[in-house]
Amino acid sequence: MSTAIQPTGVERYEPELPKGAAVLEAPVRGVTLLEDRAQVTRRGTVRVSAGQNRVVVHGVAPVVQDVSLRAEVLSGTARVADVRIRRGLRIRTADKPEAARALEERLEALRLQREQVLEDQLRARDRFERIHQMVILGVSEIPADAGWGMGMASQWQDSFDALFRKSRQLREGALQGTFTAEQLAEEIAAVLRQRQALDRVDHQVVSWLEADVLADAAGEVEVRIDYVVPNALWRPLHTARLVGGKQVHFTSSAAVWQNTGEDWKDVELQFSTARSSLGTEPPLLHADSLTVKKKSEQVMVQARQVQVQKAGLGSAPATGGAARPAAPAAVDLPGVDDGGETRNLKAPGKNSVPSDGRPNVIPLFTFEDGAEAALVTFPELEPKAFLRATSRNAASSPVLAGPVELLQENGFVGWTQTLFVAPKEKFELSFGPDDAVRIQREEKKSSKVHPVSKWTDATTHVTLYLSNLSGEARTVKVTERLPVSEIEHVKVELDRERTSDTPELDDNGFCTWNVELPGNGHLVLHLWFKVSLAPGVQSV
């Protein structure tokens, strides 16, 4: 007598998988990642017979863009007549009698335990009410017993102490019963959810490719399949390590996210800055009306701040490099800055990226170059001295704009950002502040009108106090800025007689000193400049 083995569950596909088709094992061989999507390439070999053959590829991402699907035969006397993607539901009803029986027994035991707790709690409350009535009756009989000379104070005290003690015990027991009943109710609800989950039908969206291959003769053919999937993107990520203050080790990587439904195992990854688009329409043109307006006799000037861009060096008044923008209120992932030219960066070797939506860091290239380290400060922005390292991009590939992880010999320093850096171009990075250097800035302004020329002179006096709390001398590059006039009605002059030392003043209005701070010493710098406005000029 034989016993049949019962299946542990029922599994089916809606719609059903094709029958009689040849299965093509075509794993993912290469992936090209764009800013917001990925181009996937699969290759595989399958044996076909003469005539028309139906070929199926399983395990394809369900989010494939149908219009991007393309297939071709690389080797063999055959051609692909048609290729399409099919999607369906994989439905599995699990049969777990032992697990369900254990949960049901646990559920029944918890219910009985909760009923017993509620019954004990109700009994404790009834006894508490009876003792409460006994206390009320005993208190009402005390005056009568005292009038007849019956009873003693010690007897009354012993009786009431025993009643109060029992009352407190019953009340505490009822309260503890309430807490226990609530905990049992929560546990019953959790077990009930587990029991209901066993009866739930599992659904999984699956997809497969179907291709019609026309072969002239029987044999093996190699097929290549290309398609585009969303839910995949990449962004540049860099790491810079300053060694000994004289050498920078720079690593450029790519942070990859993908949740397409298919894992990329041991594939060739390529990262592109190309921006694919479905096309745009030119804007509509409207008529512009030109009118003549009388020139105003007053000249209105406006003071504004302008970022001075330097190739590869970021903003000049930054903390040793490109200033890091403030954190946005919402998540906004910027695009990839490629300097106006499409870049294709290939990762060395083969890499794996699972479909879990988590970041994966893929190294792209590394280089080493000498660094010029110096302490710099911009007191108007931040009263601190920062260690800035200037080096050159020694790689053949450009450094794309993105976040940079900063490291020194003693470990992690912080994060900053860099702009696009072309090969052989210099760039700067800030490796954090020097805590030994303290800076304080004071600014005073005054204005007066010249009695003869009627020009308005606004004088600004900036005082900088620098201190070195360490026992070693420090060389600090101090930078302050002056306004720059673009019209002849406004003049800006540096008062070199009252300004400390002889600072360097460039065309952008940046005034710099290279000062020596002795160990445990201090220094005071003065900056005087004047802004003159012609008569009739108003500042807004």
UniProtKB/TrEMBL annotation:
UniProt cross-references to InterPro entries, sorted A to Z: CHP02231, DUF4139, DUF4140
Composition-biased stretches (Low complexity): 314-330
Lineage: superkingdom: Bacteria
Domain DUF4140 span(s) in chain numbering: 31-127
Region Disordered: start-end pairs: 314-357
Entry-linked Pfam families: DUF4139 (PF13598), DUF4140 (PF13600)
Boundaries of every DUF4139 domain copy: 223-532
Extent of the signal sequence: none
Protein name: Mucoidy inhibitor MuiA family protein
Gene source species: Hyalangium rubrum
Annotated transmembrane regions: none
